[in-house]
Amino acid sequence: MMRRHVAFLHRPDLGLWIPAVLLGVVFLVALFGPMLAPYNPDEINHLAVLQAGSLAHPLGTDEFGRDLLSRLLTGIRPTMAVAFGSTALAAVGGVTLGLLAGFWGNLPEILVMRTCDILLSFPPILLALLVVGFWPSGIATLTITIGLIYVPHFARVAHAATIGVVYQEFVEAERAMGAGAGRLLLRDVLPNILSSLVVQATLTVAAAILLESGLSFLGLGIKPPTASWGQMIGIARGYLAQNPMYTFWPSLCLAVTVLAINLLGDRLRDILDPQTI
After folding, report:
1. Is 37 within 8 Å of 74 (Cβ atoms)?
2. DSSP alpha helix (H) spans, the chain
3. What's the domain count of the chain?
4. What CA–CA distance (Å, rounded) separates 14 from 35?
5. Which of 39, 222, 240, 259 could, after both became Cys, cross-link 70 (CB 3.0–4.6 A)?
6. 226 found inside a domain
7. Is 183 inside a domain boundary?
8. How far apart are CA 193 and CA 171, in angstroms?
C-alpha cells in the first residue's frame, strides 16, 4: 500500500490531472468570463446576424448579431452557480437524512428510505418540470428544485455508507464509553464516509449541469437575455440551416465540461475506494 501511495505522488496521474485542469479552466471562465468577453454579451447588432466565424467574431454571431464567444464566456456562470448550489443543497439535506436513517434505524430509516425510493422512481427531468412549472424561472428556482431532486441520491449513499461504519468496533467502543449520537456521527461516522460522498458530489454536479441545460433548452430555466449554454442550444436549433456552428459551440462546451466532471469522478472513485488501494 505504501509503495502505491509513493508511486502516486511521484508519477503524474493523467486520468486525474487532465479533467482537473479542464475543470480549472471552466471555473476560471465562470469567475472571470465577463472580463474576458470581447463584447457585451447582450449587445444587439442587426448588421451581423448569424454570421460565421471571422476576425471580428471568432465563433460567429447569433440571431440578434450578439457575439457567440462573449455569450459562451458569460453563459457558464449561471450554469455552474446552479450546479454547485444545488449540489451543496442536496449534499446537506441528503447526508443529514442518510446519517440519521443509518444510525438510528427502525422507523426513521423506514420513513427516509421509502420516501427516497418513491422519489427515485421518477425521472429527474419529470420532477423538475413539475416543480418549475409552478415557480418563476431563475437561478434560485433552479438551484432549489435541482437540489431537492438529488437529496435522495445523497441520502442513499450516506445511508449505505453509514450502515457499513456504525457497527464497526471503534464506533461500538465509543458508544460503550458514553459518547453521544452527535459525537459519533460527526467525529466517527461522517469522516469515514466522506470518500463516497465526494464521488457522489462530482456525479451530482455533472447531472445538475445537464438538468439545468435541459430545462433551459426547453425554455424553463435561465431566461433571456441572460446567457446559458442550454438555452443557447435550444434557441440555436431553429437556425441550423443559417449557422450550424451556433449549435456546435455551446454543445461542445457543455459536452467537454460534463465529460471532464465524470472522468474526474471516476478517477476519484478509484483513488478513494479502499478496495483499490
Report:
1. yes
2. 2-10, 14-36, 68-104, 106-120, 124-132, 139-149, 151-166, 169-176, 181-183, 190-217, 229-236, 245-272
3. 1
4. 31
5. 39
6. yes
7. yes
8. 13
pLDDT in tens, 63-121: 888 999 999 999 888 888 999 999 999 999 999 999 888 888 788 888 989 999 998 88
Cα–Cα distance measured from residue 61 to residue 81, given in angstroms and rounded to the nearest whole number: 25
Written as nine digits, the cell of 157 is 449513499
Straight-line distance from the first to the last Cα atom of the chain, in angstroms, rounded to the nearest whole number: 6
Give the span between the Cα atoms of 70 and 36, in whole angstroms. Answer: 8
Task: Return d(Cα 160, Cα 230) in angstroms, integer.
Answer: 34
CATH number of the CATH domain containing 113: 1.10.3720.10
Asked whether residue 10 carries a pLDDT value surpassing 70, the answer given is no
pTM assigned to the model: 0.84
Whether the bond into 123 is cis, omega within 30 of 0:
no
Grid cell at residue 42 = 447582450
Amino acid at 1: M
Q: Which residue has the cell 458569460?
A: 74
Question: Looking up cell 465524470, which residue turns up?
Answer: 262
Residue in the structure block whose three cell numbers are 415557480: 135
Residue 60: which residues within 8 A CB-CB, separation 6 or more?
Answer: 50, 51, 52, 53, 54, 68, 243, 245, 246, 249
> CB-based contacts of 86: which residues, under 8 Å, 6+ apart?
142, 143, 144, 145, 146, 147, 150, 204, 208
Digit-coded pLDDT (tens) for 243-257: 888 889 999 999 999
Dihedrals phi, psi of 222, to nearest 5 degrees = -65, 130
4 band by pLDDT with thresholds 50, 70 and 90: very low
